Amino acid sequence: xxxxxxxxxxxxxxxxxxxxxAQKCLKNVEVEVEEDDDNNDSEKYSSEMDTRSNLSSKxxxxxxEVDDDNDVQNMSFDSIRSAISEMxxxxxxxxxxxxxxEEPEIFEEPKNLNTKTCTEFPNDAYKDLMLLVTKYKINxxxxxxxxxxxxxxxxxxxxxxxxxxxxxxxxMNNMKFFNLEFSKVLITKHEDKxxxxxxxxxxxxxxxxxTVPDITQNFALSYENYEYNRENTTTxxxxxxxxxxxxxxxxxxxxxxxxxxxDAKQLLGYLPILEAANKDLVRDTFHKSLRHLLExxxxxxxxxxxxxxxxxxWFYPRVSTIIADWPEAxxxxxxxxxxxxxxxxHSCLVKRENLANIDLSVNDVILRTHDEMxxxxxxxxxxxxxxxxxxxxFWDLPMHHLDLGLFRYQIIFTCDILKSQHVNxxxxxxxxxxxxxxxxxxxGIKIFSNGLQSIARLTASEYRSLMKVMIFVIDNLxxxxxxxxxxxxxxxxxxxxxxxxxxxxxxxxxxxxSESDLEKFNDAIHRWAQMFVKAFKFVSLSNLKLPKxxxxxxxxxxxxxxxxxxxxxxxxxxxSLHKYFIKIPYRISNKKDxxxxxxxxxxxxxxxxxxxxxxxxxxxxxxxxxxSARLFKFSxxxxxxxxxxxxxxxxxxxxxxxxxxxxxxxxxxxxLDGFTIIGETQINIYGLVTLENGAIMxxxxxxxxxx
Length: 707
Fold this sequence. Notes:
707 residues; alpha+beta; eight-stranded mixed beta sheet; three-stranded antiparallel beta sheet; 23 helices; 17 strands; 44% helix; globular; Plavaka; C2H2-type domain-containing protein
């Protein structure tokens, strides 16, 4: 069977190929007509509709011949359109309309779209449509259906919308905002291939963050302090030939609860990843890119004036922290990446056999200072300290690196202990999952039963949730007398391990440290580390020769003394940013020459956010706390009567609250300068409140019907 297109007379052997071609061919014919319309300024929208109707009539009598022996089918032009539409509905669901790779977006701007550089949309309807399409990642097909629906039912003589979504996207691509523009610079050329760095100006990124509502109100007026995050490698084509590293920044002056929100971070750029046998060339390319990114603040000799809280304030900027995985940290420090290196720690010169030793003396921990590493490089003795033969750009910048991935090891080793040290190990693992699944936050989850693959897929948020509950999940999990295995780990020790972890983790979340706090934190680290080594040393294939463990025990306290607290240095937000800036833009690209397409998509996303912020009602009062789940509502004047009526239907804690309500309210009103209650006042009592840092406080004894 074959299929012939009535427009260009091409013949196809497969129906799918024919329908795909017919869509594009039909669109091309319509664009030709639209181009003619564009040349006549006086032509109205109704004339355009007539033209399209005439176009359909022109081909009404044309036939599509489908031959299969004596089998001949005749299809009109309108039937083609209908068949294509029906096949699209049959072959896809609603989510395919919102996000589909079936019709990848081509970022080449269509000709004769009359686009021009501007900063505003032609009208509000045009703007609302494009913001909708951009926000919800609606593809061209779905967006065009919205336009057709609007044009059909609006009864307007001239449509305010673009003729198609491609035109709308091209219009947004041509919009000019000085704070949303990406640049590119050639970093190196290798084997006739150019490697470009795509980036935004660092100072402009800082200013962009400071334009976000409520950022400046929560901005600490101290030295400028940048967190610098390098995300994991992103493969940007299906053959793996092109790779990019996204780089993000945020400001350390912003309070932790606000800094960990997505809009408090900026995409700084995409680093090119050179594929070459010469690894020193790869490393040199990486550091050249970083130098170019950070050059705006390196060249600052006298600081910078930034507009904060309605006034210009002088700052002296510096990069303070790099958040990265351990292998990526090796790229920054240029130490050998292998954990089997003789000196695997990028902070000191500890030998590999001492990584699990938590009783090292101060003399055993010789720090890798910038000056010492530079001397080894200049004297060509870099191999003796296990660093690469490349000049390290960061030798000129003081900062510290954080990697807080130890809890993942604790989960993995716990799973190994349960499976290997007990006859019914698999049943114990299933029991752990069963206990987790009984917690409303983990419905139906199977973390341990599915092994390392499931554990590796956990996000930072899920790990943090596990921290809170694992002590209860592990407690009384198995019989202490079942110790027929060598190096048996009893249940009490395993429970204490998670208890010590929680104590250590709570201390790590401090926003300020006194010297006594640091001593307490150091004691908690060593107490946990001793139990960690005792429980898992014989389970670990490397006998716990983990650089992360060594770094946490011996370097984190000094790092806090030198550079400040570690609270809030989480990769959770960056994981969502990776999806927002990489995965989604890549999925809607045509997978060819990806980098420019990613940047255009990101620009449209930024325009959408910028325009949406302008659309917010300025009269709306922002709330620090969000109350929900209202329990009671009553008049203040009738409070005692209300309490008496409800006292038999509430628990003891609520009765205590009722009894103390009036006195507590009086104390609160005394704190408010000049505040008085006039007339009848309604009181609302809520079951929960969401604080400004996202934490939820509950005022009930039950959660999801569980006490």
